[in-house]
Each structure stands twice: as structure tokens, then as C-alpha cells.
Automatic annotation (TrEMBL):
GO MF assignments: ATP binding; ATP hydrolysis activity
UniProt key word Nucleotide-binding: yes
SUPFAM superfamilies, A to Z: P-loop containing nucleoside triphosphate hydrolases (SSF52540)
Lineage of the organism: Bacteria, Bacillati, Actinomycetota, Actinomycetes, Micrococcales
Stated name of the protein: Iron complex transport system ATP-binding protein
Amino acid sequence: MPTVLQLSDVSFVRDGNTILDSVTWKVDSDERWVILGPNGAGKTTLLQIAAALVHPSSGKAEVLGDRLGTVDLFELRPRIGFASSAMAKRIPAHEKVIDVVMTAAYSVTGRWNESYEDIDLRRAQRVLAEWRLDHLAERTFGHLSDGEQKRVQIARAVMTDPELLLLDEPAASLDLGAREELLQLLGGYASAPDSPGIVMVTHHVEEIPLGFDSALLIADGGIVAAGPIAEVVTSQNLSTTFGLPIELSESNGRYAARAV
Ligand SMILES: Nc1ncnc2c1ncn2[C@@H]1O[C@H](COP(=O)(O)OP(=O)(O)OP(=O)(O)O)[C@@H](O)[C@H]1O
């Protein structure tokens, strides 16, 4: 399977602070990763390197086979789907949902003068249906619920058929029903044979969707453990990562954790 992300000894330093410290990690196109770690651990920074939005201070980062620093980012970025709350803030509140998704084909937020092809419209309609948003296609983004907005962001991220899909806390701030619906959709997408390599950042083991196979635990900018979820997501590793004794339970592939 092709490797979609390869970080070798990657560090990221800002204002004298080491935010990522010698991270070595590889994602193959058939892998679905979840990144877990406490606030400030460096998860978003790691995702931003994977999205080719920032460069490492040292070390080597290869995204979709190209080394950052040697590749045209305007050609690379459309091949990466990225959904985060920072990206969502750039979506104009008055934008229609169908346009939020369709503009992804042109790597812009906010419909302006691009001329859209029928094929883009049909694809956007199909993606909206897949993420159970078709009934909201004509609504304005700013008037959707948090759960609906999260699903629109993901629909936008998958619109271009990315080779790498990056999701930064897609279930944050959702109520129980909206979270479970999102996890079901994510799990279905992750399990489809033609889905891309996926990396999803979360704070909670409860948000690991079925269909995800690998986990990276990060604390203080360094990897605590990385590998198959069943081996990596353990009480001991979570206790080390979050810095307090944690008891983990698992039922039918879903996880729950609490302090002991
Ligand atoms: N450009 C930057 N300049 C200075 N400090 C930064 C920069 N980007 C991130 N940091 C700091 O690096 C640390 C890691 O940030 P990052 O957002 O990657 O963590 P995170 O694990 O995603 O956190 P959270 O779970 O709270 O979202 C934080 O202490 C943050 O303040």
C-alpha cells in the first residue's frame, strides 16, 4: 500500500518552545488513524504538517510521496482533505450548503465567479446525500446546528476525493445523538474499500469510530505509543499520555475511559 504520510525525526519549534519533538511516524493509504493526547500536546500542529500548511523546523516530512519544501503546495493541497474548526471559521455564514461543498473543487471558500460544471454539482449532491445533508443543501451554513456544520465540513473535505483525509476534532461540541450519528457516518466512510488514508484528532476514546485501526498517542510533543488501536489504546498508555491513572473499557470495538 502506498505511504501517504511519512515523518522522519520531525521537530517543530516556535518562539523557543519545542512543540513537536523528533516525531517519526508513517501512515499508509489503507490505514485509519486516530491521534489522542491532552490539550497542547501538539496534535493540531502535527495535522498542519500533514496538511502541508506548515513546515517542520527540522526533520523530513513527506506528504503523498512529495517532500515538503520541494513540492508545489498548490498542486499538493487539493489532494488533501482537511476539516477543522479553524477552516470552518473561513466559511462565510451566508454561504449555501451546496456551495460550501462545491467550492472545495476549486480550493476556495465563498462562491465568487468560478464557473461550475454540472459534474461538480452532481458530485456535491451525492456527497451531501452520503453525509445525510441533502435536505439542507439550500440552507445557509451559518444557520446550521453544530452537528450539521461538522458534517458539512467533512463533506467539503471529501468532495475532491482526497488521497489523505485529515480531521481535527470532528466530534468536538456535539451532543450525544449528533456525535453518535457522526461516528456512524465516519465509521462507514472509513470502512469503504476506496476511502483514503485518514487521520483524525480527538480528545476522547469515546470518539474513536468503528473502522479505525491505528492510534497515535502524543504528549508534550512526543509520541507515547503508535500502532494498532487494540495494542496502543490501553489503560497504561492513556495514563502516561494524560498524566493521571485512567481505567479503560471496551465493548464491541467502542471505548470508554475514566480516571481511577
Ligand atoms: N505558531 C505557534 N507559535 C507558538 N506556539 C504555538 C504555535 N502553534 C502552536 N503553539 C503552541 O504549541 C502547543 C501545541 O499546540 P497544538 O495546537 O498543536 O496542540 P493540540 O494538541 O492540538 O492542543 P488542543 O488539544 O488544545 O487543541 C501549544 O502550547 C500551543 O500554544
